[in-house]
Design goal:
Layout: H1 2-20, H2 23-29, H3 42-56, E1 59-64, H4 67-83, H5 86-94, E2 99-104, E3 116-122, E4 127-128, E5 132-136, E6 145-148, E7 151-157
Parallel strand pairs: 2-7
Antiparallel strand pairs: 1-5, 2-3, 3-4, 3-5, 6-7
């Protein structure tokens, strides 16, 4: 199982470098990569960014959240979004990120490998996006945009 994850990670990384052919983003992640003679397009930048994000964060389990997990996630997300500076909200809108990922408490279904359990909050509807909790083995840095399931969400941790 671990060798499959390693092979997939390597494959995605190599594909991102070759597919994007954008020295700016590739060199930011891997400074030893030489400049490539390709044009810089926003599509290439987006492809590399998405691939790097996909490699960085993945969830190990997904399950229906308990009522308590949902309450905690909603409370933390609301508080976090209310306290979020306007500049950060504007940056999220420019990146077309409408969701935030917020920590919630671990439940009975939580995987023993999980470092955190997160839920996704929709900043437009001001509600938890779904009743799904995600166990995360390696949480992203606070403020980082991560792809979790079908959501592109800014991770806020337990709140600001």
């Amino acid at each position: 199982m671990k060798s499959r994850i390693l092979k997939a990670t390597c494959g995605v990384t190599i594909a991102a470098l070759l597919m994007g052919a954008s020295a700016r983003v590739a060199r930011a992640q891997f400074p030893y990569v030489p400049s490539l003679p390709f044009s810089h397009s926003s599509a290439a930048d987006a492809a590399i960014t998405a691939a790097v994000v996909a490699v960085t964060i993945y969830f190990i389990a997904r399950y229906e959240a308990t009522e308590r997990q949902r309450e905690i996630a909603e409370m933390r997300a609301r508080r976090s979004y209310e306290r979020m500076p306007e500049g950060r909200k504007t940056a999220m809108k420019k990146k077309k990120v409408r969701y935030i990922a917020v920590d919630t408490e671990k439940g009975q279904k939580t995987s023993p490998k999980a470092k955190k359990t997160v839920m996704i909050y929709d900043t437009q509807t001001q509600k938890v996006a779904s009743n799904t909790a995600y166990d995360v083995e390696k949480p992203p840095a606070v403020g980082a945009t991560a792809k979790i399931d079908n959501y592109s969400a800014e991770y806020v941790g337990s709140g600001l």
